[in-house]
Design goal:
By secondary structure, the chain is α+β, with helices and mostly antiparallel strands. The protein is 38% helix and 31% strand. The chain has one domain: YaeB-like fold. The chain has helices spanning 6-15, 20-32, 38-44, 86-91, and strands at 2-4, 49-51, 55-60, 65-72, 77-85. A hairpin with a 4-residue loop joins β4 and β5. The radius of gyration is 12 Å and the shape is globular. The two termini are 24 Å apart.
Length: 94
């Protein structure tokens, strides 16, 4: 998959240094993945929350962080919409 918006993740981990390894691992897996349908994501990430409109919310770093993305299965693109802590996510309205 092609990852668009990785700069949002990079900016986040500059402030949350403990999150670096978890997000690096996620980015490496995504860029090597081939997702053709939401079930492909669920098979690898059981805790991923599949939302309408091809949106997916990932729990990262033992559920300390949340990552909200949009997946274009046909174009093989994962676009980062938002990244933050679990507590910040709880205050959001996604």
């Amino acid at each position: 998959m092609t990852l668009v918006g990785a700069d949002k993740i990079d900016q986040f981990v500059r402030c949350q240094r403990r999150a670096l390894a978890s997000f690096q691992a996620w980015k490496a897996e995504v860029t090597n993945a081939v997702w053709t349908k939401p079930l492909d994501i669920k098979n690898r990430y059981r805790s991923a929350d599949i939302r309408p409109g091809n949106h997916v919310i990932f729990d990262i770093g033992g559920n300390k962080y949340r990552l909200f993305v949009n997946v274009s299965y046909q174009l093989k693109i994962v676009r980062v919409i938002w990244v933050g802590t679990h507590a910040e996510y709880d205050r959001k309205k996604f």
